[in-house]
Prior knowledge:
This protein is α+β, with helices and mostly antiparallel strands and 266 residues long. The chain has 2 domains: 5-141, 2-Layer Sandwich (Fructose-1,6-Bisphosphatase, Chain A, domain 1), CATH 3.30.540.10; 150-259, D-Maltodextrin-Binding Protein, domain 2 (3-Layer(aba) Sandwich). The chain contains 8 helices and 13 strands. It has helices spanning 5-30, 37-60, 91-95, 167-178, 190-199, 212-224, 238-241, 249-259; strands spanning 64-68, 72-74, 78-89, 102-109, 112-120, 125-130, 134-137, 140-141, 154-157, 183-185, 204-207, 228-230, 244-247. It has an 8-stranded mixed sheet with strand order 2-1-3-4-5-6-7-8, sandwiched between helices. Helix 4 links the parallel strand 9 (154-157) and strand 10. The termini are far apart. One of its GO terms (molecular function) is inositol monophosphate 1-phosphatase activity. Pfam families: Inositol_P (PF00459). Belongs to the inositol monophosphatase superfamily. Keywords: Hydrolase, Magnesium, Metal-binding.
Amino acid sequence: MARSALLNVMVQAAMKAGRSLARDFGEVQNLQVSLKGPGDYVSQADRKAEDIIYSELARARPGYGFLMEERGEVSGEDDQHRWIVDPLDGTTNFLHGLPVFSISIALERQGQLVAGVIYNPAMDELYTAERGGGAFMNDRRLRVAGRSKLTDCVIGTGIPHLGRGHHGNYLVELRNIMGEASGVRRFGSAALDLAYVAAGRLDGFWEDSLSPWDMAAGILMIREAGGFVTDKDGGNSMLDSGAIVAGNETIHRVLVKTLKKPVTPR
């Protein structure tokens, strides 16, 4: 596949940060699992990966702004372009030696997502997308799954944990989806979950309380793979609301409807 110069810059930044994370991941697996040691080490790995990405992108496009998990909002002279970056999505997995984590980089131009990269260095899977150019995994073209019945589908989700999200509301939604779907999966990296929807590995996905850097690249990835992505009301406020629902056209519509159902006694 042919990549634009901008996408190549994003891929190079993700791969370089990925090599750093892969080295640190090997060390984390050898650390004694205590609350302080590994947690501090992972924070250092996170910041180091973000420093690499920031340096690479800022050197290639010095005027662009940033929205990053650690640095937050960084204004640039070019107010038409903004990088949206998560240097380590799936921190808890990383801490526990689970090889399901990712780097996510998206480019926003005049408020529109135009390019995205999601990279899992542990599995060496590189997902890329450009607006109007399709979505790819390791240069293989991606399409969302074609299933049309929720009873045949495996749906991804993010489970709210301690201090995050509304647990009661989520349990209602989960019960509704569990009663209709073939299976529900929680992998622990929203960026990868969205990439898996684009790749057809998951038929759909929903989650609340996400940050823009968790979703931006994945939103474009799914759309370029022929899928649908909205907030839970079917609108386009995902980056603002933190809520997202994704799938092919039919499954997306069914998920939005099913998530709104009250719990029925069984």
